[in-house]
Amino acid sequence: MSDIEHEKSKSNNILKLPNYFERVSNLLNFKKVEMPKIQIDPQRYYLAAENLGKRGWTIPFSFTPRQIAFFEEPTLTSEEIDNFFHAYYSDEDNFNKLFQMIYSISSLKQWHLAIRQCEIAHRKELFILSISTLLPVLEGILSKFENDKNNIRMIKVCKQMLDDSLTKESWVFSTIWNSCFHFITTLYAKSNFSEEEPILINRHWILHGRTEFNNSELDSIKLFNALETIANIIKFNFRNNS
Question: According to the lineage, what is the superkingdom (predicted)?
Answer without folding.
Answer: Bacteria
